[in-house]
Specification:
The protein is α+β, with helices and mostly antiparallel strands. It contains five helices and eleven strands; from the N terminus they run E-H-E-E-E-E-E-H-E-H-E-E-H-E-H-E. Strands 4-3-8-9-10-7-1-6-5-2-11 form an eleven-stranded mixed sheet.
Amino acid sequence: MTATHSTATRPWRARNRRIIQNSWVVTDIDAAMRHWVATTGVGPFFVVKGITLEDQHYRGRPAAKSIEVTFALAQAGDIQIELVDQHNDARSAYRDLIPAGQSGFHHMAIYSNDYDADLADYTGAGFEVAFSGAFAGKRFCYVDTSRAIGYMIEIIEASDAQAGFFAKIADAAKHWDGSDPIRPAF
């Protein structure tokens, strides 16, 4: 189901409008991190490899094949920068917008203290969940807002562990002297 309204004809506002992250799908995460550091000075990047996402659903059904991805995260002022490199051919929200072999902007993320309410705001407005899952027991999803705004919205469920990890990334950026631009996350 795709949203059938526009903001010009039917005003709508989600409760949670605080964007914390901008994300790009890339074809070579190592090259993309080096490019970001060299051209924007953003860093350091924290690389997350080999994680297992739990309870994966694609377009409302259990995923036929688990996605295999590497993430890299850095902070640029108030916005977190995420790079995503999908390594397999599983159907995913990433491939819905950015075909294999191409790179491009994919989503903005909100950090949610009331995941169910934030999700209900979007689905109640007619937007479909393209992909959902969990990591370490905390939920996330990609809401397909691409027909309305050209990219998706990710909703990330708040947790103490996640908040601590995001704070680690932001703190490293504040005090970064340009050394050690690519680091393991864990």
